[in-house]
Design a protein that fits this description.
alpha/beta
């Protein structure tokens, strides 16, 4: 056997993964309403596929206005909004919106409520049945497919609302205080389950909340906003494994991040 011509060569370095462009981006966005109110001033943010950003701040600081811009429901006065909902080629079908109230159709079954966005895309009940049932199973409502919303608890209604949002497998998930009306036990349980549901679909997510602990648990980055006009005054990275285990809420690192965010909130209010 011929001897090697020289010492073994080190393996070639693995090239870095290509940069993933953001799915959502606001670039120096300002918004002034027709009556003259300056709602936002110079807001910038970006979210990649699978990323989750929480918007935290007092009432009136423009958090929900940011969501409406990303959903294509408002247009900025200045700056640029990049999002599937404002892209004429992609359209709003790739964006799901979860509100504080479940906004379910009271006359329809849970299954038909979840079917609604697929129905709007042209799918019949039979065509959508398999996906609807799979989504109901994923959120723990398989046994309540034929129930009406009035027969559900608050937490179950929110599960149905989230199932309706995720059934289309959207690229973007926008959430406006989805757990604010729930008791603390149900809120924490749904927060943990939401992370598991997101892990499968990997949507770019923006969640509005007033709750510091919720922002820290759900998000990879927390943007603190201040009012008059609405603007981002702090960004705190929550650089912990994702998705998080419920036990993380009891670890010192969780309390440290919460304290950091709370301090930024106090500074914003001052």
């Amino acid at each position: 056997m011929a001897s090697p011509s020289g010492p073994p060569q080190p393996p070639s370095p693995v090239p870095p993964a290509p940069f993933a462009p953001p799915v959502l981006r606001l670039q120096d966005v300002s918004l002034r309403f027709a009556q003259g109110t300056q709602a936002l001033a110079g807001v910038s943010l970006q979210v990649e596929a699978g990323g989750c950003v929480a918007l935290l701040g007092p009432s009136g600081c423009g958090k929900s206005t940011v969501l409406r811009l990303l959903a294509g429901l408002l247009a900025p006065t200045e700056g640029r909004v990049q999002a599937p909902a404002v892209d004429a080629c992609e359209g709003a079908a790739q964006t799901a919106f979860v509100f504080q109230e479940p906004t379910l159709m009271p006359w329809a079954t849970v299954a038909d409520n979840v079917w609604l966005p697929l129905r709007l895309q042209g799918q019949t009940r039979a065509q959508a049945s398999e996906r609807v049932q799979a989504m109901l199973s994923a959120v723990g409502l398989a046994d309540f497919a034929q129930a009406r919303p009035a027969q559900l608890s608050g937490g179950m209604k929110m599960r149905a609302s989230i199932a309706r949002a995720l059934v289309t497998e959207p690229r973007v998930l926008l959430m406006d205080e989805p757990f604010a009306a729930l008791d603390d036990f149900t809120r924490q349980r749904l927060q943990s389950e939401l992370l598991q549901w997101r892990a499968r679909l990997q949507p770019a997510t923006v969640c509005v909340t007033h709750n510091v602990a919720e922002a820290v648990f759900l998000a990879q980055r927390v943007l603190v906003m201040a009012p008059s006009p609405g603007r981002v005054v702090a960004e705190i990275a929550v650089d912990m494994p994702y998705p998080r285990d419920p036990a993380w809420r009891r670890e010192p690192a969780f309390f440290e991040r919460c304290a950091q965010v709370a301090q930024a909130m106090e500074a914003a209010l001052a």
